[in-house]
Amino acid sequence: MNQQLLIDKKICVLGLGYVGLPLAIEFGKKYETLGFDINIKRIQELKNQDDHTGEVEIEDFKLSQHLQFSHDSNTLKESNIYIITVPTPVDQHNTPDLTPLRKASELVGRYLKKNDIVIYESTVYPGCTEEVCVPILEKTSQLIYNKDFFCGYSPERVNPGDKERKLTKIKKITSGSNSASSATINALYSSIITAGTYSASSIAVAEAAKVIENAQRDLNIAFINELSLIFDKLDLDTTEVLEAASTKWNFMPFRPGLVGGHCIGVDPYYLTHRALEVGYHPEIILSGRRLNDNMAKNIADQIIKKMIKKNISIKNAPILILGATFKENCPDIRNSKVFDLAKELEDYGCKVSMTDPYASSKEVEEEYGRNLVPLNNNVEYSAIILAVAHHQFKDINPLSMGAPTKVIYDIKSFWPKEWVDKRL
Length: 424
Hints:
38% of the residues lie in helices and 12% in strands. By secondary structure, it is an alpha/beta fold.
């Protein structure tokens, strides 16, 4: 089965966002590949070799000669390897929302044939693939798992906006539901991932490895965020303390900030959900999550206190926030905590404006009900906040902007210290 599938496989990648599109592009350079998405507008965009996420260049489209795009589900029937890369968010109660994953599994199940392989890349909790997705595949296809069809899990490690560590340069974890499928899946990814692969012993191990990657990072940032709150009360500059500590060879260089996005701010809840299911109440993970989720309020409080000390009227005070995306040099606004910061300031009675050179004004309006504004040096802002370290903001001198008396707050320690009233 291994050799046969490697010779005449046709791959279908379902979900063409930050994860799925680069994957489809790379496979399309070597194998017959179908890029599928239910978003008709997205498919038309990709057919025109245009990727609004900025992850794929025009040259990559041209090199992917075996790749086709479609929103017609009937096109799935020709494939024999299905790779599912749909979102796995949480709901308003921070409970895993598996709706996209379930629907994608149902869709694939309708076209599943004997000896086909289904690979999941979406972040989930350990056990989700085989306990949630596989039963859906079996029920819909009327085929038997590990007899008629096989599954695998290969967690995505995409870093949006990173032009250096792209898909092929990041080591890939692979896994399969039996030894044969595991070998096939590992060989498949090995053919496009120049950084190499790591074959996990089981699907559950691969799932767990993925979900702890971001939980670990979340906790490390939470620790640094807590330090920044302590140092604020001690009137110490957190950046200076971290720079001094970093002179030791094994000090980890994390920085404080708003923790949003589709991974770090979400994935830990998948792990805690599973922990609670098996009767364990996670202490440290949830504590880190609470601290990071409260950072927008803590920062807003610091800004307001600085404004009061400068005798700046809070009611209707115009405030400019530079940046709306969840990270620098990237258009991704999913779960961006900058919007939480804006709301916290508005709860004090301030009038908040936001500007961002990367974010889509339409997406911001649809997702958050806000309008982005162009950068305007003539507005007398009472406070200017650097929230996202986009490279375009490096050349901006906040001292020449806004009202004569104002607060300049740099969340990212991006500007020279002498320019700002406070760095996080």
